[in-house]
Amino acid sequence: MTRVLLTAVLIAPFVAILATAQAPSPTVTIRAGRLIDGRGGQARDVVVTVNGDRITAVGAKPGAVTHDLSRLTLLPGFIDTHVHLLWHFGKSGRFDNTGETADDRLKAGLENARVTVMNGFTTVQSIGEPGDLTLRTALEHDSLPGPRILTSVRQINERTDVPRGNRDQLATPDQLRQAVRAAKDAGADLIKIFASASIRDGGKQTMSDEQLQATCGEAKTLGLRTLVHAHSAESMKAATLAGCTQIEHGVFANEEVLALMAQHGTYFDPNIGLVLQNYLQNKDKFLGIGNYTEEGFAAMQKAIPLNFQMFKNALRVPNLKIVYGTDAVAGAHGHNIEEAIVRVTDGGQKPMDAIVSLTSLSAESLRLQDQIGAVAPGLQADLVAVDGDPLTDITALRRVVFVMKGGRVLRQQ
Ligand SMILES: [Zn+2]
CA 14, CA 19: separation in Å to the nearest integer? Predict the structure, then answer.
């Protein structure tokens, strides 16, 4: 008797899981007036069939549908490979979080997550702090609207894990390898590295070639991707040669280093359309804090046209994989799509290429191309509908009227 009871107790959870898995998933159909599939294809009057959290069919289909979006353009959920989801303006209205509790920070992050997904971004990579994990758990636990979150949990620079009291020393390769292992143990999906100074401080290389080799080498051994903040051409070159997988910003990139990145298959994530513009628009909320000085703002103002020219140069480099990232900070969340609009209007990118970057190419950079980034059978049902045709008017991407993430409708007209 005891044994039977025990068996029943042990089996019960598994039976429940099986029942969930075997229950027929409700089938949902969506008719799109225009479909842009994320891989460079497009079609008119298409029905997308969704079972549970997956897309099961895409094609012509007469008859009634669950969601008639025949006046809209349907796309895969957007992907931002570089955000700071917890950054926000504090109680003073400025970028000053003194006096805040961890719960205040979490609440701000939940709101940032909500506005991000409501504007079409169903996956983001947060670069990154331990609070990202709390945020991800809170979203999942309470079924709150937010994007799928990947996080670096922490960031690594030239002085990481140097013991207190020795702060004038640089980290040894062993200390950096240890920091990479610690990040993985803490739950990091990727490693974030600072190879150069901030644009507000000139952007020069700050980690040595040897430090970069140790950090990116250890990450590679552990199967982790590496995102490297780098502005100067020499810091980008060092990161590329060290085998790091993606380079952020790159305002001072030259054609030689961009060609080297293309040759090594290093992803490039230029941020030309949102982060600096957002800092300038919200200058009064940042000025006087840390390196947000008048000189820093002057450097950011100067970098905007440099970025446009650098991006035009990057577009001319054959086989360079330009992914989508905004570096969304306080004030920028929910406006992530502005980067795509600027890449097209000021950077000269073709709208279809900007959309492929925003979807399937960014999914590939996250090693999630078999899960997200396209409207195709077998992939997650992450779908966004916009009012207008972004191929002729890229600003249509701002007019999001429908969002589905993993088969769940989060926004509807
Ligand atoms: Zn950043």
Answer: 9
